[in-house]
Structure prediction request, 495 residues.
Amino acid sequence: MRNSARPLQQIRYLFCFYRTDISLNKAGKIDQVSIFVNPIACHPNGAIYGREINKDLTYSMLFSRALCSTSEKFSIRDSSNVGGVGPLLEYEKRIAVGELVGGDSFQIESLRALQRLYEELVEHEDDCQLDRYLSSKKSGRSRWLWSRLMPRSNYSPIKGLYLYGGVGTGKTMLMDLFYNQLPSYWRKKRMHFHDFMLNVHRRLQVHKGVADPLEIVAAEISDESILLCLDEFMVTDVADALILNRLFQHLFSNGMVLVSTSNRAPDQLYEGGLQRDLFLPFIDILKERCVIHEISSSTDYRKLRSAEKGYYFIEKKPTGLLTEMFNQLIGPEKPCPQVVEVVMGRKLQVPLGANGYAYFTFEDLCERPLGAADYLGLFKKFHTLALEGVPKFGIHNRTAAYRFVTLVDVMYENKAVLLCTAETSPVELFEKIVTVTDAQKISPRSSSRSQRYDDIDLCVDNELGFAKERTISRLTEMNSKEYLEHHEVHRLARH
Prediction:
């Protein structure tokens, strides 16, 4: 499979935008196939991908050379398994057809880093054991038992990429561009960090009682996906923080390549968290096994979307507006209490639900001991949430603020719609949530300044202070015309 797909990959790599026709007929001879050429796209290192030269001669030479690089015959169906030309050229192609806005040099630099990684992975496909068809068929547990008899480290020859930057700078879009260009036959997986950690905890429950369950879990994960793409890497939970160090030591030792996005630089992860000294070795191994790249763009692309319509309503006291809107959206179906099953046998009570719409008060969903697992379970069954009474956040409801941030993250990842009433605008909801640095600017302490001048509801929390910008940005996009139209198309497609 790998050898039969490689010729097509080479052809796609060389030809990108301008279209000509070449194909194989039933006799196996070249007849007509649609390919694209981009004569102006530049290699990250400065080389030109395509040139204005004799097209007939060039196409014939390149096509023949690609076909002759393996003795195996391939069928047209193999083309579905072949990756693309890389994220940089795909980005240029989408700009050319108007799907993306160009001109952001910071995104271009990040794409060059992703393109370099893409090319290294293609070149070292065998060394990295990316081909799922050639990988060992032993189970994670069997592989773990074998490793106990023949212990060895098998670090990948390729370093991964840790991409971080401000909110709305396109990190998720860039990761998806990269991931979608990879061959389908590779051992790869793309997950949100919340999903990844829930998956790890589920596996740990299965292997409970084993001497080192993390080693088995790491073997299972790396057996399924040697290339792991994690979106929105963030650590706020002490249990997760203590797991990550040993887990990733095993994963990297198994040859895993990590590609991740985050709002935080590695040294800022879990800053101020409980027992952070036990987490610090993870930061060291992360910097050792990944190239660290910052997107320095100050543009928040989510806020560039048009907000011609939306479902975010500001009201100080309940007026019945949310109930009225909810009933209009669900149509003739009568809403009733429902139950959603989440991980490890837990169940979430939904006060009212109908036709894919769920209704909660803020107290029900964010002031009870719920977390990402509950929210993920909720949006597997419902595509729209009506949430009543989102308050301003401060020190008095700091835990609820964390849950609201997680809720918005899960909704955004699942392309769900939020219909809500809130005390004030998204920006003002979080104005009392600040980082330590911001707090020192607002209310610097000195011998001449009394505590009575401080804002008693000011919440000084680095993790929440950084996360609030992402939440504000996502709330803005989730109420844009483009987001809601995309949701409607996606919802209709599922039905």
Summary: The chain is about 45% helix and 15% strand. The two ends are 34 Å apart (CA to CA).
